[in-house]
Structure formats: structure tokens, C-alpha cells
């Protein structure tokens, strides 16, 4: 398969993947699988009038959606979908994931501030609190995967799982990263910044039309991106028998994405004080333990 | 046609195609709420349309039923907020001022959406863009913006000059309600109000100083932080913060439809909150019919959340008035009807609670079972299975118990159902032993005193008036087989004597028990009944002091006023069903808990659903129906009628006076008015999400609050 064809198929799979994630999101919200639903939603938002709130912060209002979707696209660009199928094989890839995704929450805070509404503002504060909660554990568990691979290249991290996937090698790390990934995507039960039943959409409550569409698309892409990240870091990336590597990557990715939505459907929203408490009181010590455990195993 | 709903412009090929595609996705924002809409739906919308939690997402504003002008004003603001293309649909009223004339009007009947949805699609498909589309500026919104402007003085503009709908500037986040919020204590130094922004969002000063426009009263020189914050309100921790006035409701997705909370937010902590009782949904009791016989249908229509209860209540009061009609006690078929309504009402509430909790599965399942039981096709095992899963849902208990409003953490939870192994204390009252309980029958007489129960020196007991003296009371206690239940004190929480078959003619005199001594008896209202004794059920959860501590002294008085599941979740055993012979014969006892938090309210309601299922099952083939007692209203003469029913939210009492065959005065005492009084104490200093959850857990029905 030529690199061009390979890239084309992966792009197609990714776009299709975003659509599948949209279907999954709908299922998690309604309990029904509705394949044309996301397309209809797209048309609805596309045809919808765009309302700008009075006295909004013009700079943040215009830049937040671009920042949101921009950082997600940057993260995708460094994730390997197959052996040699990576847009940018960055030397600091593992670190970059965390660094880039911090701006997801920053953009939420920006839009929460920009629209000049209480619901959005409270949503923005919650986004900030969420960022404070998960940022430390996520960087620590990433460190443990880097330790094993002895490299920050994401392709090296996948290769390091040749004998044993990280989900088994460092299960505590997987658990912490998985939960943190849910929090980064602000999916239920970590949907504090948008909280439909409390803030009627929170940071998104006042967005309409194209801006809302950008955020919605961005979140779907973010879910897919984080699912790929879980696969790359803990589920052996493209590794698997018989099928081409990228097919394995996408199969595993959809499994992870489905589990993301399933958890949210069956759990009530977490309280933000609990989120902070659990992450700092239990998450950080567990992440330290994970580093210690991986270090010991590596030395043995 | 869609004069205010269409986008301005020509309908070219691309737009026609886009409109047609978009019309397949109908996002409905129901007003006053999805809980009210559900009462008119026999099944969920699945696939045909979806309900949104935010008017900004919706392309259909659906007004369900008649509503007060104040609430219609809020709906008008929501309509103004909605992005175009949008369709205004009214089910029931043909027009509601100040809303514009609806694009689609349908009769308010069961499953009205089935006929409305194709029409709405057609409108969106063909009229999404129009040259003659006009801006719509409701006077309500303009006034509110002007008010907000006056309160805040002039404010800076941040440069967002191009906002608003096409052809009109718009805003006012109110109805839905990203509310018009005004920060207190603003004192901007200089002002530039742009005339073109007159109709914009009245979000006011969202700390505009931080946007580089000055701040608070600062001049050109240095001003310390202390000076800048000296006039700001202080948080509980002493920090000066700007507080925001925010409105949640009346169409908030996580609150009962029509309920509006006004909050002062200190960050995301609630500094103050209260329920707005001036929005009452359908002008309750504003246009009572003259004809007493029309009262059942009238009350049924007034309260969509408990139509059976209200219809029966009116019928019972009429029977009580009519001397020929005999006993107004509930019959078994009527009790079955009430229990069925209790099941659906609790499920409908559970669906709203699930929204605020963020559990889509719980919401969907609650709605599914709601529709099934509404259509009499419910499966008892499936519903029981669902209840078990809710009780075991991960994290739910922790989340709801933590938000305990500081009034007790105990989780003792008991359920008293016939045949169950729970603590039951039965008190039989008869003439001779009444005085043993220090009912000092010095007995003042007070005719027709059916007001709210008093609190004459009692922790929780509420004492009302006896219309006629009792023969006496005698108590007996059943044996316990409940291991974790320690009995230290036997207190009779309340008992109510229903004397239904007695028409209370004017001029009658009644005795009133002024106080009942140290037994904390809570006699709300004793009306004569002709039965010799009463059976009371009592679950004791500790000594009086322990109870006092668990419930919290500050709320004692408020809790004394409340009835229903909220009271029972606080360990207060008030339930009018204890007075009904049909329940007594079934060995029925109420479900109680002592947690007095959102979790215990959930548990009580879930157990009540199961209890109602068992009651209906015991009733056998009796599927529930209203009695066919003949009611005779004389065309001359006068008199009073009274009835009590334990509704899903608590005890509801209807009193009326008939003069020359016409209704002269009607008084309705409903549980929701008292529940609304709890909003302030249970939300104070709570985090916003906890506060909303706590309020939703009360199950306040704004439809039965009469301002």
C-alpha cells in the first residue's frame, strides 16, 4: 500500500470515526442508535442563525473555538495510527499530548468568560477546576510509559509494548489515564463545564450556529483523539494479528470510545469537590506508586 | 407565517435544501417543562424529535397548555433568545400575550405532537428564510433590559457591536435562563452606553473591569485592592466577591417545569435563594367556576401534575358538603387510582432528578416506565428491577448524601408496608384515653379554622383545630422485628381525623385543641367522622433530642409545615392515608427515613413506588375508578365542604363555601407552598449543583402554589 493511499484511508477512517463517535454520543444521551442523527444535527447548526451575546468579549469569543479545535488537531497530528503512519513523529510526543490538551480547558474558560453569561461563566470556572484536578496525575502516568519505552516518541512507546501491553504492565497507570482522559473530554460523569441539567450547556449555553458547530465537532474529535491516545499508550497501538495495523488501531479506538460513553450514561455527574479531592488525595499518590512500580520492574 | 421565526433572506436552492435537511432534526424546547409535556404523551418521542435543555439549541418552542401572563412573559423571552429559524407551537391556547401568535396551533390532547410534528417540519422546510421576516422585540424583554440598565447605571461596552439576531438586537438571558444577571455593587467610573445596544443582553457588569475598562470607581491614580473591594459583599469565608443575581427557571431543565428560583451566587456558592411564587402556572384559583359541580374538572385541568388527586379532592369535598351523599372516605378503587398516580408522579419526578444528576440512563428508564404505567401497561418486575438498579447506582448515594444541607446525616431508612418486617407502632385512638396524652381538653372553640397547622411550642408537631371533640384515644404498639431500630420514645407525629360525612354548615362551632402536652402530638385538623377510633402508624428513630439534632433546630418550624415524602424523609410521619379506612384495612403504614437529604427523599419515593405497586396488587382486579356517589348541591342555602387527600407531594386540603348553590369561597392548602419555603434554608451556602439537586429533590409543583 502506498503511503498516499495509506494516508487517505487513515484520513477517511478518522472522519468516519468522528461520525461514529457522534452516533455513540447520541446513543449515550438518548439510548437509541440513530445513524442519520448527527448529520441532521450538523445541518441544523449550519442553518441556524448565529447570535452574539451583548457585551461579549470579542477577542475571546472569536478565538476560543479556533483554539479549541486547533489544539485537538495538533494532538492528532502526533498520534501514530500504524507503523509509519504518523503525521509528525515528535521527539517529545508523550509530553506534547498533555501540553496541548491543557489548552482544551483554557479555551473552555475563554469561551465561558467571553459570552458574558452566568451559566457560561460558572462552566468556565468548573473547567478550570477540572484542569487542576487531572493535570498532575495525567503527566505522572505519561512519565511511567516513557520510562518503559525509554523514549518520548509515541511510536517507541507502542513498540515497547511488544511483549506486554501497558494495560497489564502498569494497570494503575492505565486506570488513571483512562479516568483523566474522560475528564479531559469533559464527558459524563465529568461534564461539569457543560452540565446540561445544571447549567443548560454551561460554557456552550449561549453559542449558536457555526460556533456551536465548531465546539461540537471539536469535542467529538477530542473524544476520538483521547481514545487513540489510550490505545497508543496502553493498548499496544497498532499491534494485532492478521489485520493491517491501522485497522487494529481504529478497532481498539472505537472500543475505548464506546466505553467512554457507556460509563457516562450509567453514572451520575461527579461533584467538582470530589473530583479535586479524589485526584489529589488518591490520584497523585497512585500515580507515584505507578512510577515506583514501573521503576522497580524495569530494574529487576 | 413564521413572520418572527424565519431568517431574513431569499429561499434559494441551497437554502431550501439546507432547510429541508435541517427540518428532519426537530429540537423542541418545551414550556413550561418536559415533565408537563410528558403528561400529554403516551410514549417517548424517540427518533421523531428530541427535547433540548437549552432554548439556544432548539428550533421549536412548544408551549404546553395555558399559563399565567407572568409565565407567558418568561416564555416570550425564551422565544426571543432562540436562534432562527424557529417555530412557535402552542398546544391549547390560541394566543398567549405577550408571545406572538403561534405558527402552529394544536388542541391540547393526548399525543398532540403526533399531529403537530409533520406540520412543524413542513414549516421549517418551506419557510426558514423569508424576505418579509421581522425582528421581534417583546415589551417584557425591553422593559427588563431597561430595568437592568437603570440598576447598573451605565456600563461599558466591550466592542461586541455586531451582536444580535438578524434585523434586531437581542438578548436578555432570562426565561431559559441564562439570566439577566446584575452584579451588585457596581460603580463604574465612566460610562459609554451605545444606543444601538438598547435591546441587547442585560448581562450587565460581568466584572467588566477585568476586561480593561476600568473597574470599580477607580480614578486615574492607584487604588488598593482593599479600597476597591471595600463595598463588595463578603463570602462566608470573609473574602469580598461580586455576587451575581441569577434566575434558574421557570423553564430550567433540572427543575420542575414552571418553578423559578432567584439566586444570589457568590462564585458558584449560593448565598441566597428563593422560589418565585408569583409565576403560578395556570392562574390557580383565579377563575373558579360558580357551579360547584364544575369544580372537579376545573381542578383537574389546573394541575397537570396530579389531575386524579385534584379531581378526587373536589369530588370528596362536594360529597362532604352534600348531606345526602354519605361517607366521603376513599373507596378502594379510588385509592388504587391515587396510588397509580403516585407511581407516575414519582417516576416523572425521578426523570427530572436524573436530568439534574446527569444520568441519562436513569432519565430514559424513568420516562419509559412512566409512560408504561400511565398507559396501564407497566411491568411490575421491570419497574422493581429499575428501582433496585437506581438504589445500587455507583456514586449516587455519596453524591446525594453529601448534599445534606447540614441538617443531619443519619441514613436509617425504614419501610413500612403491610407484610413487611419493619417497625410499626399502631396507635388507636378512642375517647377514653385521649386525655392520657395530655390533650388538655380545656378546648377552645374555633369555627372553621382550617388554616395551616400551628407550632405551639412543639418541635415538629403541628396542631390544628378539632371541629368536634373526640371520643378519646387509645394507643397500642405492635411488636418489632427490626433489629436496627431502637425505640426510646414513642411519639405520635401526627394524626388527623377525617370526618367526612359531616357537612360543615355555617354557624357550626368546633372545638380546637390548643395544645397537646408533652407527647408532641400533631393534630392537624380533626373533622368529625363518625368512626370510633383511628389507627396511627409510627416509626420512631430515636429520642426527641436525637431527632432534634438530626433535623436541625433551624428547620424544625419549616418541617412542621411540610407533609409528604419530604417530611417522611426527615423522619416525620405525616401521611393522611393513615386516616383512611381503606388503607387501614390493608395494614398500610408509611415509608419513612431520617436522612433528611436528597438521598433519603429519593429512597422514600422509590420505596413508595414499590409500596403502591403492592397496594394495587393486593387490591386485585380492581383497576381503579371513581365512585359514583350522587352529589346533590341545593340551589339555595349555604354550607362548607372540605376534603383531604394525600397527594404524591403531601397532604392537600380543599375547603369551599357554597352560597345559594354557588361557590362563594375556595381555599386550597397544598404541600408545595410549604415546600417552597424550604428552598432558602436548604440551599444556603451550598454549591450550585447541590442546591439545584436539593430543590429538585423537594418535588415542588408550582401548579399548586397560589400566590
Give me the CATH architecture of the largest domain in chain B, please. Orthogonal Bundle
Number of helical regions of chain A: 12
Count of discrete domains of chain B: 2
In helices, the fraction of residues of chain A equals over 70%
> What's the CATH topology name of the largest domain in chain B?
Cytochrome-c3 Hydrogenase, chain B
Strand content of chain A: under 5%
Tell me about this structure:
Chain A has 300 residues and is mainly α. Chain A has 12 helices and no strands. In chain A, helix 10 (209-234) crosses helix 11 (245-266). The N and C termini of chain A lie far apart (41 Å). Chain B is built from 20 helices and 23 strands. In chain B, helix 7 packs antiparallel against helix 8 (307-321) and helix 9 packs antiparallel against helix 10 (360-374). By secondary structure, chain B is an alpha/beta fold. The longest helix of chain B is centred in the middle third of the chain and has 26 residues, at 332-357. A 5-stranded parallel sheet of chain B has the order 3-2-4-5-6, with helices on both faces. A 3-stranded antiparallel sheet of chain B has the order 8-9-10. The chains are: A mainly alpha (300), B alpha/beta (707). Chains A and B meet through helix 1, helix 2, helix 5, helix 9 and helix 11 of A and helix 1, helix 9, helix 10, helix 12 and helix 20 of B.
Question: What order do the helices and strands come in, and which of them pair?
Answer:
The complex is a heterodimer of chains A (300) and B (707).
Chain A: H1 3-30, H2 37-47, H3 58-78, H4 93-114, H5 118-149, H6 154-159, H7 166-169, H8 171-184, H9 196-199, H10 209-234, H11 245-266, H12 272-299
Helix pairs in contact in A: 1-10, 1-11, 2-10, 3-4, 3-10, 4-5, 5-8, 5-12, 8-10, 8-12, 10-11
Chain B: E1 7-8, H1 13-22, E2 27-31, H2 34-38, E3 50-51, E4 60-64, H3 69-81, E5 87-91, E6 104-106, H4 112-127, E7 129-130, H5 139-152, H6 225-229, E8 243-248, E9 261-266, E10 269-275, H7 295-302, H8 307-321, H9 332-357, H10 360-374, H11 380-391, H12 396-402, E11 413-414, E12 425-429, E13 444-445, E14 465-466, E15 474-475, E16 495-497, E17 511-512, E18 523-526, E19 534-538, H13 544-551, H14 553-561, H15 564-568, H16 581-585, E20 592-593, H17 598-618, E21 638-647, E22 650-659, E23 662-669, H18 671-676, H19 679-683, H20 688-698
Parallel strand pairs in B: 1-7, 2-3, 2-4, 4-5, 5-6, 14-18, 16-18
Antiparallel strand pairs in B: 8-9, 9-10, 11-20, 12-15, 12-19, 13-17, 21-22, 22-23
Amino acid at each position: 500500500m502506498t503511503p498516499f493511499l495509506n494516508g487517505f484511508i487513515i484520513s477517511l477512517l478518522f472522519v468516519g470515526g468522528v461520525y461514529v463517535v457522534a452516533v455513540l454520543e447520541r446513543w449515550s444521551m438518548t439510548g437509541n442508535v440513530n445513524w442519520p442523527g448527527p448529520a441532521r444535527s450538523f445541518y441544523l447548526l449550519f442553518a441556524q442563525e448565529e447570535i452574539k451575546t451583548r457585551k461579549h468579549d470579542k477577542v475571546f469569543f472569536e478565538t476560543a473555538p479556533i483554539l479549541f479545535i486547533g489544539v485537538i488537531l495538533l494532538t492528532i497530528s502526533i498520534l501514530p495510527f500504524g507503523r509509519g503512519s504518523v503525521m509528525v513523529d515528535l521527539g517529545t510526543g508523550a509530553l506534547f499530548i498533555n501540553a496541548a490538551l491543557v489548552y482544551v480547558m483554557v479555551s473552555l474558560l475563554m469561551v465561558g468568560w467571553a459570552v458574558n453569561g452566568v451559566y457560561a461563566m460558572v462552566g468556565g470556572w468548573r473547567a478550570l477546576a477540572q484542569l487542576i484536578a487531572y493535570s498532575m496525575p495525567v503527566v505522572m502516568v505519561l512519565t511511567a510509559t516513557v520510562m518503559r519505552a525509554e523514549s518520548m516518541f509515541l511510536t517507541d512507546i507502542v513498540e515497547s509494548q511488544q511483549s506486554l501491553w501497558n494495560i497489564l504492565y502498569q494497570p494503575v497507570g492505565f486506570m488513571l489515564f483512562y479516568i483523566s482522559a474522560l475528564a479531559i473530554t469533559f464527558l459524563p460523569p465529568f461534564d461539569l463545564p457543560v452540565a446540561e441539567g445544571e447549567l443548560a450547556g454551561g460554557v456552550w449555553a449561549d453559542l449558536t450556529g457555526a460556533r456551536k458547530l465548531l465546539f461540537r465537532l471539536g469535542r467529538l474529535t477530542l473524544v476520538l483523539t483521547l481514545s487513540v491516545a489510550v490505545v497508543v499508550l496502553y493498548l499496544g497501538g497498532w499491534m494485532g494479528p492478521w489485520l493491517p495495523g491501522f485497522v487494529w488501531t481504529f478497532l481498539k479506538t472505537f472500543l475505548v470510545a464506546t466505553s467512554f460513553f457507556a460509563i457516562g450514561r450509567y453514572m451520575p455527574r461527579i461533584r467538582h469537590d470530589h473530583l479535586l479531592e479524589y485526584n489529589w488525595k488518591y490520584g497523585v499518590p497512585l500515580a507515584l506508586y505507578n512510577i515506583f512500580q514501573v521503576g522497580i520492574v524495569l530494574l529487576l | 407565517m413564521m413572520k418572527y421565526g424565519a431568517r431574513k433572506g431569499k429561499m434559494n436552492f441551497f437554502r431550501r435544501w439546507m432547510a429541508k435537511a435541517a427540518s428532519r432534526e426537530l429540537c423542541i424546547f418545551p414550556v413550561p417543562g418536559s415533565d408537563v409535556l410528558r403528561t400529554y404523551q403516551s410514549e417517548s418521542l424517540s427518533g421523531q424529535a428530541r427535547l433540548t435543555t437549552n432554548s439556544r439549541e432548539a428550533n421549536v418552542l412548544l408551549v404546553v397548555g395555558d399559563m399565567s401572563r407572568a409565565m407567558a412573559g418568561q416564555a416570550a423571552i425564551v422565544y426571543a433568545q432562540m436562534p432562527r429559524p424557529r417555530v412557535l407551537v402552542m398546544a391549547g391556547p390560541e394566543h398567549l400575550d405577550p408571545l406572538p401568535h403561534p405558527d402552529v396551533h394544536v388542541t391540547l390532547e393526548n399525543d398532540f405532537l403526533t399531529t403537530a410534528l409533520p406540520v412543524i417540519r413542513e414549516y421549517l422546510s418551506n419557510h426558514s428564510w423569508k424576505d418579509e421576516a421581522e425582528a421581534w422585540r417583546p415589551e417584557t424583554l425591553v422593559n427588563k433590559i431597561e430595568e437592568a440598565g437603570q440598576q447598573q447605571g451605565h456600563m461599558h461596552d466591550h466592542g461586541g457591536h455586531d451582536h444580535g439576531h438578524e434585523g434586531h438586537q437581542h438578548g436578555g438571558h432570562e426565561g431559559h435562563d441564562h439570566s439577566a444577571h446584575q452584579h451588585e455593587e457596581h460603580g463604574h467610573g465612566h460610562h459609554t452606553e451605545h444606543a444601538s445596544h438598547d435591546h441587547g443582553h442585560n448581562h450587565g457588569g460581568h466584572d467588566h473591569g477585568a476586561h480593561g475598562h476600568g473597574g470599580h470607581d477607580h480614578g486615574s491614580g492607584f487604588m488598593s485592592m482593599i479600597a476597591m473591594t471595600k463595598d463588595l459583599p463578603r463570602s462566608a469565608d470573609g473574602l469580598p466577591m461580586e455576587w451575581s443575581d441569577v434566575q434558574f427557571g421557570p423553564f430550567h431543565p433540572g427543575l420542575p417545569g414552571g418553578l423559578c428560583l432567584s439566586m444570589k451566587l457568590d462564585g458558584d456558592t449560593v448565598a441566597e435563594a428563593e422560589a418565585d411564587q408569583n409565576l403560578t402556572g395556570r392562574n390557580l384559583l383565579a377563575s373558579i367556576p360558580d357551579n360547584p359541580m364544575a369544580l372537579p374538572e376545573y381542578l383537574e385541568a389546573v394541575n397537570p401534575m396530579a389531575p386524579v388527586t385534584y379531581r378526587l379532592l373536589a369530588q370528596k369535598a362536594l360529597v362532604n358538603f352534600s348531606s345526602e351523599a354519605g361517607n366521603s372516605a376513599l373507596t378502594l378503587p379510588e385509592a388504587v387510582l391515587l396510588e397509580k398516580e403516585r407511581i407516575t408522579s414519582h417516576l416523572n419526578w425521578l426523570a427530572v432528578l436524573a436530568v439534574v444528576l446527569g444520568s441519562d440512563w436513569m432519565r430514559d428508564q424513568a420516562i419509559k416506565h412512566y409512560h408504561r404505567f400511565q398507559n396501564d401497561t407497566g411491568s411490575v418486575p421491570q419497574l422493581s428491577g429499575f428501582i433496585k438498579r437506581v438504589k445500587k447506582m455507583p456514586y449516587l448515594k455519596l453524591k446525594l448524601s453529601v448534599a445534606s444541607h447540614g441538617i443531619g446525616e443519619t441514613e436509617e431508612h425504614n419501610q413500612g408496608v403491610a407484610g413487611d418486617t419493619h417497625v410499626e407502632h399502631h396507635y388507636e385512638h378512642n375517647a377514653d384515653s385521649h386525655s392520657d396524652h395530655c390533650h388538655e381538653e380545656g378546648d377552645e372553640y374555633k369555627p372553621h379554622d382550617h388554616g395551616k397547622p400551628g407550632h405551639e411550642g412543639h418541635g415538629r408537631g403541628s396542631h390544628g383545630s378539632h371541629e368536634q371533640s373526640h371520643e378519646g384515644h387509645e394507643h397500642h404498639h405492635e411488636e418489632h422485628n427490626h433489629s436496627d431500630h431502637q425505640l426510646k420514645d414513642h411519639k405520635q407525629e401526627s394524626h388527623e381525623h377525617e370526618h367526612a360525612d359531616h357537612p360543615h354548615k355555617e354557624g357550626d362551632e368546633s372545638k380546637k385543641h390548643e395544645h397537646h402536652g408533652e407527647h408532641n402530638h400533631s393534630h392537624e385538623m380533626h373533622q368529625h367522622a363518625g368512626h370510633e377510633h383511628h389507627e396511627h402508624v409510627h416509626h420512631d428513630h430515636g429520642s426527641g433530642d436525637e431527632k432534634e439534632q438530626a433535623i436541625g433546630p433551624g428547620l424544625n418550624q419549616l418541617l412542621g409545615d411540610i407533609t409528604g415524602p419530604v417530611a417522611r424523609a426527615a423522619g416525620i410521619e405525616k401521611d393522611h392515608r393513615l386516616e383512611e379506612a381503606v388503607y387501614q384495612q390493608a395494614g398500610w403504614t408509611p415509608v419513612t427515613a431520617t436522612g433528611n437529604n436528597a438521598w433519603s427523599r429519593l429512597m422514600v419515593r422509590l420505596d413508595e413506588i414499590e409500596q403502591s405497586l403492592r397496594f394495587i396488587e393486593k387490591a386485585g382486579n380492581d383497576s381503579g375508578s371513581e365512585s359514583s356517589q350522587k352529589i346533590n348541591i341545593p340551589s339555595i342555602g349555604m354550607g362548607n365542604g372540605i376534603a383531604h387527600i394525600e397527594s404524591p407531594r403531601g397532604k392537600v386540603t380543599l375547603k369551599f363555601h357554597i352560597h345559594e348553590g354557588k361557590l362563594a369561597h375556595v381555599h386550597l392548602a397544598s404541600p408545595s407552598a410549604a415546600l417552597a419555603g424550604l428552598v432558602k434554608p436548604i440551599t444556603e451556602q451550598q454549591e450550585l449543583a447541590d442546591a439545584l439537586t436539593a430543590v429538585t429533590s423537594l418535588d415542588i409543583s408550582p401548579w399548586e402554589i397560589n400566590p
